Amino acid sequence: MSEICTTLYLMRHGEVDEAYHRKFGGTIDMELSPVGRHQAKVLGDFVKRYDFDAIYASPMKRALATADPVCTAQNHQPQIMDGLREIDFGEWTGKTWMQVAEEYQINVFRWLDELEAGRVKDAELGADFRERVGEATDAIVANNTGKTIGVVCHGGVVRAMLAHLMDIPLPIMGKLDIEYASVSRIEVSDRKAETTLVNLTPWKDLAE
Q1: CA–CA separation, 189 vs 49, rounded Å?
Q2: Extents of the domains making up the chain
Q3: What is the distance between the alpha carbons of residues 50 and 108, in angstroms, rounded to a whole number?
């Protein structure tokens, strides 16, 4: 008997407005930039090669704007899950990477370590973030056994979903690049979870 496998395509939203570049956006409900809208369109064209049984999305504007062409290509309406929203960066929210590095004297590329250790004032604790995203991930898998599912969310959430399914400490995932409008794929069965595609960017990798 063949093993039943649930396949998740995890997609990050497209590029956001320039005013939020190199900033800890988190809970800021920002729009896509013109480039981001183009990336989302290319992403929608790319996923036509797959047959999604359902599409889940974060409730945030940048994710929903990215999900729109994906859903159109797949002829689905997005199922909104609050658990897929981006992490709350607390007092870092809206600050640039440089501002945070200088003000707190930290390596901002280790932001997941800082959140995991609870060192960011008023931020969502790493444990709470992992639990929230883990519960959303488990619900998606449990409700779609053997199906192929699209998920449109955020870079931090993609990392947390992969970490949860592969049982990897979340801070390690900070070493994994998840670009705008990228696609990562993980196949989940009772025996294992196997990542078979990471950070493919159709708007860049497949450009003619």
Answers
A1: 23
A2: 6-205
A3: 36
Instruction: Say whether pTM exceeds 0.90.
Output: yes
Residue-wise pLDDT tens digits, 72-81: 999 999 999 9
- What average pLDDT does range 113-126 have in this prediction? 94
CA gap 1, 145 in Å, rounded: 16
Among 186, 85, 180, smallest CA distance to 129 is for 85
8 Å CB contact between 183 and 11: yes
The sheet with strand 6-12 has its strands ordered as: 79-80, 54-57, 148-153, 6-12, 183-188, 193-200
* Cα–Cα distance, 180 to 36 (Å, whole number): 8
Contact 15, 33 (CB under 8 A): yes
CA of 186: how far to CAs of 138, 183, 207, in Å? 13, 10, 24
Going along the chain, which residue ranges are E strands? 6-12, 54-57, 79-80, 148-153, 183-188, 193-200
Topology given in CATH for the domain delimited by 6-205 = Rossmann fold (3.40.50)
